[in-house]
Amino acid sequence: MKTLLPTSTAGSLPKPSWLAQPETLWSPWKLQGDELIEGKQDALRLSLQEQQQAGIDIVGDGEQSRQHFVTTFIEHLSGVDFTQRETVRIRDRYDASVPTVVGDVSRQKPVFVEDAKFLRKQTTQPIKWALPGPMTMIDTLYDGHYKSREKLAWEFAKILNQEAKELEAAGVDIIQFDEPAFNVFFDEVNDWGIATLERALEGLKCETAVHICYGYGIKANTEWKKTLGSEWRQYEEIFPKLLKSNIDIISLECHNSRVPMELLELIRGKKVMVGAIDVATNTIETPEEVANTLRKALQFVDADKLCPCTNCGMAPLSRQVALGKLKALSAGAEIVRRELARQ
Ligand SMILES: [Zn+2]
Q1: pTM beyond 0.90, yes or no
Q2: Beta-sheet strand order (sheet of 271-275)
């Protein structure tokens, strides 16, 4: 990509109110059957158009065809029973009713490949596609079969690799794995989390990214953040090993967070998607605020490796707020591009 500071989003964007209940996670669909299929495609087109109008450089599907970034992928796999639900603690933070692994997990057919082909047809811009990472997948399930988080993660990594290769063939430029669980289970991340992630991207020629955030702007997450103290140093635990990994891009939460920016020094050399938009507030950032976050990041990330981004997905926000934030991201990046051009 030639654009300096190419802008992007972490992935999800709000859905239109005719497709799903707005500002809600795991929002039920309002359409069914063929109408739902068509509705998801229409929503994808709208979401793409909004990203383009806001001036976003690396676009995505806004995750319009999925109810949730983890469960929708898992729903398409065999070996998981969605009627058998158990309550588990997600990322040690909040309880959720989740499906049960009842047998060997496998992918019988592609999950998002048709959606990705559809997106590819709509634009010549670079496109990014998000998949859940292996560790975050196992953390959103009850395992009644493998009885080993690590073993199940390796199985999911194999499945994700099959899907990722087909997404690459469909013309996806960047495949992103969402691993918010990397911010919680440090020992496991270093023992096998990064290894299973590398298995998921094995053999890919397109660019790969890992998104590690402090979660959607929902109450359970904002309450958890209050307990983390004045400096959030979680990234410090995993950056040394991530630097040595094969992953190309690391997507992080930076704006309005208490992550000390100097931690980015630990991954110098990698491309970084710097979160310059707070997804936990309805207040729309000014372009200058975005620019400020990017300027701080530029002390630790080389300009040709910095991609301005959102802290996390914006699915739980209103469409109006999300659009305002996308425009602020573009405008803020433009301010810094002009400054860099003058240097
Ligand atoms: Zn996130």
Answers
A1: yes
A2: 128-132, 174-178, 207-212, 249-253, 271-275, 306-309
